[in-house]
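Posted in: Protein Modeling Q&A

I'm a second-year student putting together a small comparison for a lab meeting, and my supervisor asked me to include a predicted structure for Pseudouridine synthase. I've never done this before, so apologies if this is the wrong subforum. The sequence is pasted below exactly as I got it from our records. If anyone can share the structure token output, I'd also love a short note on what stands out.
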Amino acid sequence: MHKAPQYTIFKVTERDALLPFIMKSLQGISRNKAKAILQGNGVRVNKKIVSQHDFELTQGMVVEISKKKDRQTLNSRFVKLVYEDSHIIVIDKAPGILSMANNHSAFCVKTILDEYLHRTHQKCTVHVVHRLDRDTSGLMVYAKNMKAEQILEDNWHEIVTDRRYIAVLSGKIEQKKGMVESWLKENKQMVTYSSPDEGDGKYALTRYRTIKTDDKHSLVELKLETGRKNQIRVHMADINHPVCGDVKYGNGDNPIDRLCLHAYRLDFYHPMTSELMKFETPIPKTFNAIFSSKEQDS
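Accepted answer (user: helix_wrangler)
Welcome! Here is the predicted structure, written out as tokens:
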């Protein structure tokens, strides 16, 4: 049975970058070995996995380092393993793959994870507790046993403390921040829309913060206060700034040939230990590449 990595704990006493801090803390370790630990998701800062070499540390932060040599890796261009213990798996999903199988396709994240568990001699399969759309990338958590699944499913809104997305929207948003709220319904063609009548449908609230813009696009952070189907995509279309690359709710603006929506942050209480787990992934490089340095207006 695969075991969760054992961490050595270090407290930060002065400002430093993460890579040199690791080399100082683990005396005698080479630069390449320190990089390998980072790339293998073997470092946590304040309980959050960090792989960025130049991540800035400040006094009071807690760094946990795992030197476990037999840490298993998941080799898939569709799924990156972010965290694993005996109860849950957190992954970074690529665009273009389903969270779980449907009637039209058996190829999905669950299949890849089940194959990984079999290959690493773990006598379990993953259980789906939430979903991302096929074309949305980003962080997801799967349960590895029925007890963890039940706790996550039954208490999802209490357990999950923060879910945030990064998106590239069509057009230049003038507001620095705002919110969209509506009642969402689904028609017979499985298209979600905001009902004009208050109380008609499921209440949905999305908050947004503009990170940067140019004349054609806006990079925004979105925070879900509710988790309805296609919520972000519908709400951004409602304010006439649809998500770029959205063939269902968009306006044809598709600068990088993909849906520009990425679930970059996921915070939740561990279903078995109640520990607050915090995970964050970088903004996709392809999103930033849309904005030329001369036209940025932050």
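A couple of things worth pointing out for your meeting: The first helix runs from residue 18 to 25. Residues 214 and 241 are 13 Å apart (CA to CA).
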